[in-house]
Amino acid sequence: MRSLRAAQSLASRSLLLSVRALQGAASPSCVGARWSSSSVLPPRLPSPSSGAVPAGVTGAVSFSLTFASFAAAEAKAKERLPSDLLPQNVVLYQYQACPFCNKVRAFLDYHDIPYKVVEVNPLSKKEIKWSDYKKVPILTVDGEQLVDSSEIINILQRRISPDDELTNDEEAKWRRWVDEHLVHTLSPNIYRTTSEALESFDYIAKHGNFSFTERFAVKYAGAAAMYMVSKKLKKKYNITDERAALYDAANTWIEALNGRDFLGGSKPNLADLAVFGVLRPIRYLRAGKDMVENTRIGEWYKRMEDAVGEPSRIQE
To answer: Which residues, if any, are the signal sequence (predicted)?
Structure first.
């Protein structure tokens, strides 16, 4: 009976989980970002140890092959920062499937900023009880709190590039488009059918911070709830055909590139990283596969995967 009551309780709360984990966890409409001087600081995590960079390729290879390999690697290199500009003791409090959290991770990965991840349980939120801010993402840098995905990125960008203009009009326009339009096409697509809703919540359950009982309840109760809610989201955002809306958004983005590899030209800018970040959680779900197969976004997405590279997350 205790397990049944627990499952029923979790089922009733699955809607809250769903909305915050995959749609509104870090809504760009929340209050502007701030470095918080809260008297309650997050739990202190150990500083990352410095790692050595591999010295290079060894063995007998021809000069031409070595040079070609080096050039290709340089073309795809991350935007690594000088050590004096590198943020220290970075911790990201997140939901793995949250598109806004993925925006922040894309920025950190691209700039090769080492960071630790604390996966927040969306039901109890015990991992962020120390904070007055109850949404994700939350980023802490040397214990200072930063909130709201777009503003986290704005402040980090000013910190790592203090002499550069933060953004231009085109870049700002498309960053707003990501927060105000693109993200709203995701939930109606990944919960479009019962099977797709189950696929999405299987991913959430496997990668989220849940107990065994919670994982089972979240997968099935959450999928059922969000299948129904997705119909209301379609109406709210004036979507008649989910896939058509997603495909139109993907092609609109590619048209904005106007033949460039990235909106930033030869390398990604903040708008590129924002689009890539919010699409990354759905890329290998059915909706994401359909998007790549039926639009022109695939080549750009692959270039972004190469540019962002491997995660700079510190594995513990």
So the answer is: 1-21
